[in-house]
Amino acid sequence: MYTHILIATDGSFHAKRAEDRALELAKGGAGVTGLYVIDRARYQWAEELMQDIYRKTRAEGEAVLSAFREKAQRHGLEVETKLREGTPSEEIIREAREGGYDLIVLGSRGTTPEALALGSVVQRVVRRAPCDVLVVRG
Questions:
Q1: Which alpha helices (DSSP H) does the chain contain, by range?
Q2: Global pTM value
Q3: 119: left (phi over 0), alpha (psi -120 to 50) or beta
Q4: Pairing of strands 103-107, 80-85
Q5: Residue pLDDT, tens place only, 59-74
Q6: Is 17 exposed, middle or buried (0-12, 13-18, 19+ CB in 10 A)?
Q7: Predicted local distance difference test score (pLDDT) of residue 46
Q8: Which is it for the CA torsion 18, 19, 21, 26, positive or negative?
Q9: Is residue 61 classed exposed, middle or buried when 0-12, 13-18 and 19+ CB atoms within 10 A define those classes?
Q10: What's the CATH class of domain 4-136?
């Protein structure tokens, strides 16, 4: 049904559930790309600490993507992974447009405390996505 699936992950419980769903859908032959977005705007208030925070956040993103890649291999799938910087919803949408994806898969909530029921990133992606969006509940 889907040929090119983008899974936006931040390593949260909800994102890991979304990863599982995306990998199950991909078993039908779809290509999969895992995406982690470094949200630099979250740390603007700490300009002098930014470089250290950036290094740690980048390492966290690489670890999340590595774990996703290993999970996919256990499912018998090879996936591409990407690390982007910027506002998460904007970068997810940009990647979906540029990559020609036909499905975006997200967990219902991420790692930030801003969103209570449905994550603010998810709300923005659902409204602006150029393709279908699957929101996986925890």
A1: 13-26, 50-74, 88-99, 120-128
A2: 0.84
A3: beta
A4: unpaired
A5: 999 999 999 999 999 9
A6: middle
A7: 66
A8: positive
A9: buried
A10: alpha beta
